[in-house]
Please model this.
Amino acid sequence: MSERPADERDLVLAAQRGEREAFSELVRRHQRRAYVVARSIVINHEDAEDAVQEAFLHAFKAIDRFLPDQAFGAWLHRIVANAALDVTRRRKVRDADELPETVASPFRDPAESNELRSRLQQALQTLPARQRSVIVLHDVEGFKHSEIGRMLDIPEGTARSDLHYARSHLRRVLGEVRSGL
Amino acid sequence: MTDEMRGPALVRDDAVTNGLRAIYAAPTEAAYWERLEQRIMAHFERGQEEGRWWALSERTYRYGMMAAGLILILAGSVYLRSRAVESQMAYESVIETPGADQPVYARRLPLDERRATLRAATGH
Model:
């Protein structure tokens, strides 16, 4: 999470000077991780994409305030998390206005027919949003508790306990499925 | 089950983790990321176009505030200086009036005979 290509600082400096190609390169390098961070917070793939786009726009509007010696990724992930939370809030308002909440299908889940996985998807919907984000960021993407804490603006200990509760909850749900199979 | 360094409280269930990885896996196709990059850049450029005058105004605002601060300081010092000059001039106009240190005699109109008699009789 902490490794940075040697020339990333130069890219940031060039982006701060308004060089489009430098910005484009930063997008290339960071978009996948940004997507993962956003996806851990929002409910579906499309919202994750929207959040990533918004986040990059915010990041480059604020890039003058970024100190090039800091880790660009960590700074960007915080912005992505905020953008994803905004998207989630907007979606809640929209869903409340328009349609009853549905369990959104994730992006091209290859195991739709798998009972365990489909129960896992349902169980994920019952998890509090923050716990869901924490378990995905930690167990799927391998972020550290301290990084997750910074991204979601929560203490490291809270990230740790969220992970514990999320794991317990999902294990319990899957345990029921396993015993029924 | 995989034990992590934090003890049994944070035991990870590999089946859950594998399920999560399948659900939350980021797309792997290079074409997908190329498209997303293009969309981000298009979004960025649209945002730049819409926000250009904001960006300009932000910079202008910064310089404007600095200039306004300078003008305020200059105006303040000019005002204080002019006040000091005015006070000095007022003081000097009093101090330097010719004969300012001489006794002042009021000019009186001469009394007519009736008033003079009355004054002499009453004493004032």
In short: Residues 26 and 36 of chain B are 12 Å apart (CA to CA). Residues 1-8 of chain B have pLDDT under 50 and may be disordered. Chain B touches chain A at residues 6, 9-13, 15-17, 19-27, 33, 36-37, 39-41, 43-44, 47, 51, 55 (CB under 8 Å). The radius of gyration of chain B is 46 Å.
